[in-house]
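Mods, move this if it's the wrong board.
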Amino acid sequence: MKRKAIGVVIALLLGSCAASVPGDQDAGPGSRVQVVKQSDGTFTLLRNGEPYWVKGAGTGGGQGLGGGDLELLAASGGNSIRTWSIEQLEQLVDGKSLLDRAHELGISVTAGLWVQHVRHGFDYSDRASIARQRARLRDAVLKHKDHPALLFWGLGNEMEAFEPNVEGEVIWRELNHLAGIIKELDPHHPVVTVVAGADSEKIAGIVKHYPNMDILGVNAYGSAPLVGQNLVGMGWTGPYLLTEFGVTGTWEAPATPWGAPIEPDPSTKAAETYTAYKMDRDNNVGRSLGSYVFFWGYKQEATATWFGMFLPSGEALPRVDAMAYAWSGKWPENRAPKLRELATPVAFKRVKPGSRSYAEADCIDREGDALRFVWDIRAESSDRRTGGDAEAVPPSFPDAIEEGQGTRRIEFRAPDRPGAYRVFVTAYDGQGGAVVHNLPFFVED
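Not the wrong board. Structure tokens:
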């Protein structure tokens, strides 16, 4: 049910990008969000007049992303989701738009407004293209600004990163113009722009050229626990959100001699995710407004399991349990199985085509559920992209598994074609939980 309109005075006092918004406009039926700077330099987020700490997750479709279970997010203690593009808001979830379904579940939304990237062919010197992008953004804001689930506008994602032949100043100035459009149309929801990590030069560019930004969003993985403290040293005095965090990134992980990143085991990934959330919450020097774990869904990026917290079939992986405990202080009634070890003699080694070996999984279920094992021999990804762009799923070789499919141990042979591969195991508990891991190997002549 939509809330009745209430007149409100909103002051956005935002550190280095402080702004004051006239308060004689009716907020309409939607939510009213403000960030208040305290006398000690810290910040408090208010949603409809009440303190609000973002306990969120990135989710949704598009850009190679498959969304996870929103009802489970709410049951786990999460209260917000972040999307990347306006089209995601209109996708159907349980027969309703994403915004409507989120509102039913008490979940707020940072609504992503996708801003085009140079590496995708966008030309920031083309006035016609700029005008079309501004018009699309204006239409999107007018359409959704009064929805009660709306929390922030997420204007752009990693616009400054991976961009060939373009100065950062060009990006910041255009984002500043776009943010100005948003604030004119909707003064009741702050603007967040997300960057890929942070450094002093980047922060200086934002402060100088992008005063319309209300909240800095930072995507960070290995460095996530220290983002708040690091930003202070870089000169950022405003509020921020940890807009992506979770496991060690593919670019940060150790690699095999043939360059395949080594995926952390499931327990390590759950621990990294939990630790990043807790450290950002507790050691952010009063400037964090909350965070969005990545990724509440499934995503092919280096592997199909690196960043995703669900399988494509919907089962929740151990990182979902970790975030439920982080958000609510309680473990879910049914936890994902625990993989104690995945072992194979070929792990991290070079083998001959057609050579035979085995793999076995030591796995338990805390509730005593019978486990079903599914094994897969899959090629290493040959479609690696930058900036999280969509990647093709590499081919599988089911005929390589000769014995034991469905059990804890398989016999398999290496594919005949030389190249990099991984052996995957997934254990299902039959109650909506699963655990998955892989080990790389290389076939050579």
